[in-house]
Amino acid sequence: MNQWFTLFKKEMLEMSRNYKWIWVPLTFILIAVKEPLTLYYMPQIIDSLGGLPEGAVIELPVPSAGEALAASLSQFNTFGVLIIVLITMGTIAGERKSGVAGLILVKPVSYARFVTSKWAGSMILIWFSYFLGYFLSWYYVGILFEFIPFSDFLQSFFVYGIWLTLIVTVVILFNTFIKSPGAIGFISIGIIVILSLLSSSLSHLLEWSPALLSAYTNAFIMGRNFPDEVLPSIIISVFTIILSVLASIAIFKRRELA
Q1: Which of 112, 228, 221, 75 is nearest to 157 (CA)?
Q2: In this structure, what are the phi and psi dihedrals at residue 211, rounded to the nearest 5 degrees?
Q3: Which of 36, 54, 99, 146 is the most exposed place for a label (fewest CB within 10 A)?
Q4: Sequence-ordered list of residues with C-beta below 8 angstroms from that of 59, at least 6 positions apart, any chain
Q5: CA distance 100 to 102
Q6: Interior CA angle at 75 toward 234 and 158, to 5°?
Q7: 147 to each of 65, 140, 144, 161, 228, how far by Cα in Å?
């Protein structure tokens, strides 16, 4: 266990040296807070741009608090996912390519501990950044529109967080058998986009797809009720996460021993 904590502390220190503990949370905050502020001040923004006929009156429907918070969550599903892929695509592949992983594994270091310490470090960074961004978005939505119950905030936070956890885990899985971080990023984004498009287009057939967790969370935020399909989606997501972690360890061990 001490060996795992040593590897884990190394990972946390490395992220600190790369300033990830600063710029990743700040980026998530900017992504999340921008949406409610933009929706609230949209009439003033349009008016300041000018170019409207004289006497024209801008009348935009005022979004509900749920719609404003769902808009913030949709930003996580685009820019947030992109950032997650970018910061995790070299987690293991970078060290494999540079030879650092080989130097560490020369010592009596367990492959399982090496992979899971990397996974845990990435998870803490992502969940911390995601919480800060989503919490501040919830707060600003409450100030500008109406406060959504904190219990609803927590439920939506954890359900959507499962989808982000799955994304991190899948990217880590690709790290174990692809050495190019660029290729990992390209393949990961491609798979996420294809899965999201298929799930939304064929939602009646793929209603248990993990990619629909974001849509189910939005429905809950705006309607205060999760669809019945959300529980099977969560179960499949958790099962896929566990399977992907185990596959990452097995593939990484085979690749390094080869």
Answers
A1: 221
A2: -65, -15
A3: 54
A4: none
A5: 5
A6: 30
A7: 7, 9, 9, 21, 25
CA 252/CA 255 separation, integer angstroms: 5
- What is Dmax (Cα atoms) for the chain? 77
Contact 100, 241 (CB under 8 A): no
In whole angstroms, how large is the CA radius of gyration of the chain? 21
Per-residue pLDDT of 154-182, as tens digits, reads 999 999 999 999 999 999 999 998 889 99
Determine the Cα angle at 31 with ends 12 and 10, to 5°: 5
Place of tokens 């949709």: 74
The tokens for 131 are 């919480």
pLDDT of 226: 87
Contact 89, 176 (CB under 8 A): no
Specify the residue for token string 């070299």: 90
In single-letter form, the type of residue at position 40 comes to: Y
User: What number of other Cβ atoms are within 10 A of residue 9's Cβ?
Assistant: 12
Tell me what percent of the residues of the chain surpass a pLDDT of 70: 91
Task: Detail the DSSP E strand segments found in the chain.
Answer: none
Residue 224: what are its φ and ψ, rounded to 5°?
A: 60, 35
CA dist 212 and 56 (Å) reads 41
Quick one: DSSP state of residue 212?
G
Exposed (0-12), middle (13-18) or buried (19+): which is 28, by Cβ within 10 Å? buried
* In contact, 10 and 114? CB cutoff 8 Å: no
